[in-house]
Specification:
With about 400 residues, this protein is α/β, with parallel strands linked by helices. The chain is built from 17 helices and nine strands. Strand 4 (about 140-150), helix 8 and strand 5 (about 170-175) form a beta-alpha-beta unit.
């Protein structure tokens, strides 16, 4: 947590506080630097924890045994100023019988975020505009932004996008692991359905531009990515993705996509979910144990709240019994290096995917975020550039998205 007296927006915006001999800074110097800059994580699934009965956000949790990666004590320890909480609704059926279910779930998650912020008014505050974070941090609080992961809750009703905006949603990830009515996913085993955006998806993109909601192409297919880039009048984001050149996963962006994202003025927020950072090694025992959990409980996204809690208890036990072989912070920064080399320093940030699978060996929860800063400093990144990576680039994009909406609002 930043002390109000140490926070000076003008200095942050000018990228001052030059560091000498970045590569040889002591842990104490790294900590002081990390504490003074604005840090934003663009993607977490922490609201999934908020819905669990008995979860206390004000208490410290063990990340291995509970699976929880974010709570107030660890937010303070990790020096994270702004966090995007994801309104995540897993992809379900796309038929009349399912109408309303996904939307109701989205509102339930939004209610849980509001309740959390209201429970800790001296520690948390909802941010609706890019510059809200400056005043919030000055007051010694953490800024809570809201993103929606998966456009499924829109359910073909464009007016719902307005409703979600009014509730504080400032980006929408168009799809998740499966195709939906908006667009094709990068990982649907059935392959492309629309070969990019659907007609509805094009309407969704236009409405998001009009309102000032960032368009998030993480999880989207390559064809969807290019459709969005060609259609959007504002910069777009990838809220939690990596470089495909270093980890050949369809969830990641290849070099041409990185260059197109830079041309668009957008930003890719580096994800630290290990399987997107490095190609996972085979682990038959762990894989079998995970499959057994699914066989026992069924599809997590189709379960009620009690069923999900039971599922997660068994799922986290697998992590204890068969620990995953995780990537490292060095590998995370290898991706950042590559993105900077291809797209430029103005087009990369950090979106951990904590509480949604994110976490590497030496940055396993939010308390260890300074380890990323330490590695960036060790590699010679300047203070100004690290500020861009830790939030400046994302805030710039958010500002441009807001300005695009304002221009639309005053157009004749």
């Amino acid at each position: 947590m930043k002390h109000p007296l140490t926070f000076i927006p003008a200095i942050l915006l000018l990228g001052a506080c030059h560091l000498q001999n970045n590569k040889n800074l002591s842990p104490e110097q790294v900590s002081r630097f990390h504490t003074k800059i604005i840090t934003i994580d663009s993607h977490t699934d922490t609201p999934l924890e908020l819905l669990n009965t008995g979860f206390n956000f004000g208490e410290r949790h063990d990340p291995v045994t509970t699976g929880s990666k974010i709570d107030l004590p660890r937010l303070d320890q990790g020096g994270l100023d702004g966090v995007f909480f994801g309104v995540f609704v897993g992809q379900g059926t796309r038929d009349a019988e399912a109408d309303g279910t996904a939307t109701d779930k989205a509102y339930q998650i939004l209610d849980s975020i509001d309740a959390l912020v209201n429970r800790y008014p001296d520690r948390l505050e909802l941010a609706r505009r890019h510059d809200d974070i400056y005043q919030i941090v000055k007051e010694g609080k953490h800024a809570v932004f809201i993103g929606m992961e998966n456009g499924y809750p829109v359910e073909g009703n464009i007016s719902l996008i307005d409703s979600f905006y009014n509730r504080g949603v400032r980006y929408i990830t168009l799809c998740h692991t499966k195709n939906n009515d908006i667009c094709d996913s990068s990982t649907d085993d059935k392959g492309p359905e629309f070969h990019g955006l659907s007609d509805l998806g094009s309407e969704v993109v236009r409405r998001m531009n009009d309102l000032g909601i960032m368009i998030d192409i993480s999880h989207a297919s390559d064809e969807t990515f290019y459709d969005v880039i060609n259609l959007s009048k504002a910069p777009v984001i990838a809220s939690h993705s990596c470089a495909r050149a270093l980890c050949d996963n369809p969830r990641n962006l290849d070099d041409d996509m990185l260059r197109k994202l830079a041309d668009n003025g957008g930003v890719i927020q580096m994800c630290i979910l290990s399987d997107y950072v490095q190609t996972p090694e085979k682990n038959p025992q762990r894989d079998s144990a995970k499959q057994a959990v699914v066989a026992k409980h069924g599809d997590y996204y189709t379960l009620d709240d009690a069923g999900k809690q039971a599922f997660l208890e068994d799922w986290h036990k697998v992590d204890v019994d068969f620990p995953p072989k995780l990537a490292s912070v060095k590998q995370v920064v290898d991706h950042i290096d590559h993105i900077v080399n291809v797209a430029g320093i103005d087009h990369v940030g950090i979106g951990t995917d904590f509480d949604g699978g994110g976490g590497v060996s030496d940055c396993y929860d939010v308390s260890q975020l300074p380890n990323i800063t330490a590695e960036l400093l060790k590699r010679g990144y300047s203070g100004k550039d690290i500020r861009k990576i830790w939030g400046g680039n994302l805030l710039r994009v958010m500002h441009l998205v807001e300005k695009t909406a304002q221009k639309k609002a005053v157009s004749p």
